[in-house]
Amino acid sequence: MRIVVGHLYPDYLNIYADRGNIAVLAERARARGHRLDVRAIGMRDPVPPGEIDLFYVGGGQDREQELVAYDLAAKADPLRQAVEGGAAFLAVCGGYQLLGRFYRDLAGTELPGIGLLPLHTIAGRRRMIGDVLLRCDWAGETLAGFENHAGRTVLEDGAEPLGRVVAGFGNDGTSGFEGCRYRRAYGTYLHGPLLPRNPWFADRLLEEALAHVGVEVRLDPLPDDLERRAHDVSAERARTRGGRF
Ligand code: GLN
User: Are 184 and 83 in contact (CB under 8 A)?
Assistant: First the structure.
């Protein structure tokens, strides 16, 4: 099958090799005989209703977020309709913050979000940097990655976190939660990139994108020894030194 991926602002929001997540999705799809058709969606580009199976947006400094926030907010309706229509969505860090209601950056500027996820974010003086380990009870799995953000994300009523923080700061360094999920949309602070060391999550996104294509399938497992070792090394680093200012 062909899976259409809408990569939002690849030229602006792409730090910590976040674009590597797309490479992992493409390779894991190819290994099962599927093909990723990646389309860049940039400034003033329309969001074609119903055509995109999986949206992706990476992270960025406050400056980049300021450059894209108003253009992204202008795409709020078609993006929300797409997710209500069953499209999958992965948003990392700065991109994750802009899926909420707003992001107030260090300068105090309030950037509009698209209001897809019930949350808002306010930047604080001390950055939350380091390795992170989450427990995702909804999937019976863990996620390991790296975070670097000034933003403190507040989950609002009805918000489902992506995971519980085992080690690291997470959304705000105090709530014990990280990320947010809604339908097939997932927001997280985890960079790294995230997917090479969390293959179960990459497959979950592919399965949900395929469901949007119209194919309900459980993907056959791949020989993920290297990926599992990368996960374990990252998890151990988080346990030993994550979540310290
Ligand atoms: N600029 C945002 C913050 O500092 C997001 C940073 C990022 O994407 N790594 O919180």
Answer: yes
